[in-house]
Amino acid sequence: MAKSGFAAGQLKSLVERIERLEEEKAGLAADIREVYAEAKGHGFDTKVMREIIRLRKLDSADRQEQEAILDLYLSALGMRRSALEEQKAMLEAGAEEENADS
């Protein structure tokens, strides 16, 4: 009997601790929303900021791997020029500027 009373007390204590932490978490979430609202008020794109924060949580190798996969997928869908195409476009733009100056 004493053991079940102890277990009930311990359970109650754990539940109360979790409830307090949930309240703190809600307060922190509200603070974070306020910071995003402030950022939006200053003209920042909060979706991009959230993505930056997500990426900063990753270690460097994981972040580079995700960026490489994203580049690969975008290229496969024709949404991003390859590095070779980028260089060619830059060279062509430079040649056009030289011709315009002549």
Count up the helices: 4
Range of helix content: over 70%
Strand content: under 5%
Principal-axes shape call: elongated
The string of secondary-structure elements, in order, is: HHHH
* Backbone structural class: mainly alpha
Descriptive notes:
With 102 residues, the chain is mostly helical. It has 2 domains: 1-44; 58-102, no CATH class. The protein is built from 4 helices and no strands. The chain is elongated, with a radius of gyration of 27 Å. The model has no long low-confidence stretch (mean pLDDT 87).
Pick out its properties.
single chain; 102 residues
Chain-wise SSE layout:
Blueprint: H1 2-41, H2 46-57, H3 60-76, H4 83-101
Q: What is the gist of this entry?
A:
The protein is mostly helical and 102 residues long. The chain has helices at residues 2-41, 46-57, 60-76, 83-101. The relative contact order is 0.04.
